[in-house]
Amino acid sequence: MTIRELVSKYIQNTERVLAEMKVVQDLTRVDEEKVKSVVDHAKRYLEDAKYYEKRKEFETSLASVAYCEGLLDALRLLGGVEFSW
């Protein structure tokens, strides 16, 4: 798989997760507004990934989408959101 194909796959998968993910209501361990703030950051990293993909800067795109996925995984591990890859 080329880096271009890998970037495309990661972006599509992350877009699906962001569309289907649910923020857990009535959190006791994590503040809901902070969770939403981190989700917003993740969305911006995804937009960066798509921007760099269009510019054919695939290494930067891959780094951006990987950071987005890391933020989403961290939120899931903390119990702030629900989704599956």
Helix and strand topology:
Elements: H1 3-20, E1 22-23, H2 32-54, H3 58-78, E2 81-82
Overall outline: elongated
The domain tally reads 1
Summarize model confidence as the mean pLDDT: 93
Please give the share of residues in helix: over 70%
What distance lies between the first and last C-alpha atoms, to the nearest angstrom?
A: 19 Å
Strand order of the largest sheet: 1-2
CATH architecture: Up-down Bundle
Number of helices: 3
CATH fold title: Substrate Binding Domain Of Dnak, Chain:A, Domain 2
- CATH superfamily, by name, is AF1782-like
Radius of gyration: 13 Å
CATH class: Mainly Alpha
Class per helix and strand makeup: mainly alpha
Q: What is the β-strand count?
A: 2
Strand content: under 5%
Order of helices and strands: HEHHE
Please describe the biggest sheet, giving its number of strands, its sense, and whether it closes into a barrel: 2 strands, antiparallel
Outline the low-pLDDT stretches. none
Short description:
The protein is mainly alpha-helical and 85 residues long. It has a single domain (3-82), classed as AF1782-like (Substrate Binding Domain Of Dnak, Chain:A, Domain 2, Up-down Bundle), CATH 1.20.1270.90. The chain has helices at 3-20, 32-54, 58-78; strands spanning 22-23, 81-82.
Q: How would you sum up this structure, described in words?
A:
The chain is mainly alpha-helical and 85 residues long. The chain has a single domain, classed as Substrate Binding Domain Of Dnak, Chain:A, Domain 2, CATH 1.20.1270.90. Helices cover 73% and strands 5% of the residues. It has 3 helices and 2 strands. It has helices spanning 3-20, 32-54, 58-78; strands at residues 22-23, 81-82. A two-stranded antiparallel ribbon has the order 1-2. Helix 2 (32-54) runs antiparallel to helix 3. The longest helix has 23 residues, at 32-54.
